[in-house]
Design goal:
Blueprint lengths: L8 H7 L6 H13 L3 E2 H7 L5 H13 L3 E5 L5 E5 L12 E6 L5 E8 L17 E4 L2 H6 L10
Parallel strand pairs: 4-6
Antiparallel strand pairs: 1-3, 2-3, 4-5
Amino acid sequence: MHHHENESPETLMLTHGIKPTANRILILRTLLREGRPLSMTEIETALESVDKSIISRTLATFREHRLLHSLEDGGDSLRYEVCHCAEEEEDTDRHVHFHCELCGRTFCFEEYPVPRVDFPDGFEVHNANYMAHGVCPECNHRHQIPGLARND
């Protein structure tokens, strides 16, 4: 996995076709700095100076431009995380994501296209988000309990 701390919010926004504004930079910088999925409340807490309505509008803009993943966190609230996928690629080859429930990281698998689903006539799909939930190899390895090894 490559590290993204050195990515500038401005560059990320421009590659996604978003106009960098002061508030957008602040919000994106917060998400990049945390490096984990944040809830709206956590973002608001981190940025007390920014109006809540600006934050929610900005998150919506980021999502439209596929700069963020949104994850259900098991409750009824969403968490947001910066998507570090290859921006140049057209969205025709949407790819799958894997969210690890233990470490909370989301992995982008750019080389794995989303399985095609043929919906019934009349259903027009605008956006599909393929997010698998489970345990990543690192966490799996760390949480192996001796004596309970799986019999493969």
